[in-house]
Amino acid sequence: MNPRIPSGIFILIAVFIFIAGCTEPPIKEPVVTVSDIGLSEVTFQSMTVNATVVIFNPNPIGAKLNKVAFDVYYLDDTPNFLGHGEQTDIDVISSGNTTVTIPVTIENIQAIRAAATLVRKGSLTLTVNGSALIDVRVTSFEKRFEYSREFQLRDFAS
């Protein structure tokens, strides 16, 4: 038997074991959701919509939320634009959830129309629609999200 064959097999197995031990687990895509939409400071002049965005990072390394941007609409037979929210440069923890609450102040005409719909119908449905750009060191992901919540007039009795 040729003495080079066993030594070649040994070297091949050693290289395979070395390479297998050096590989990193693949980067998994983060998940972006809106967990809540809240209203605060509702007047006939303005209202503030607070969108709570949750970023779940399943990776063992931290990430950077470069930008989260969304539009807020209210539904009155058709979607009606209320405002735009945006935040940048947020640290995302590794292997867990990062929660960010982003306020959007809606002024005058849009707030009056939304409040009129709330009074007329007895409810108001708000929708948040946007995306988040997340950088996980070796790659980046753009994740789309959408969330709706209905508010009842009795929620604002005070």
Structure in a nutshell:
This protein is of the alpha+beta class.
Write the layout of secondary structure elements.
Blueprint: H1 4-22, E1 31-40, E2 46-57, E3 63-76, E4 78-92, E5 96-107, H2 108-121, E6 123-136, E7 139-152
Antiparallel strand pairs: 1-2, 2-5, 3-4, 3-6, 6-7
Structure description:
The chain is of the alpha+beta class. It has a single domain, classed as Immunoglobulin-like. 21% of the residues lie in helices and 58% in strands. The strands form 2 sheets. It has a 4-stranded antiparallel sheet with strand order 4-3-6-7. A 3-stranded antiparallel sheet has the order 1-2-5. A hairpin with a 1-residue loop joins strand 3 and strand 4. It is rod-shaped. It starts with a helix and ends in a 6-residue tail after the last strand. The model has no long low-confidence stretch (mean pLDDT 86).
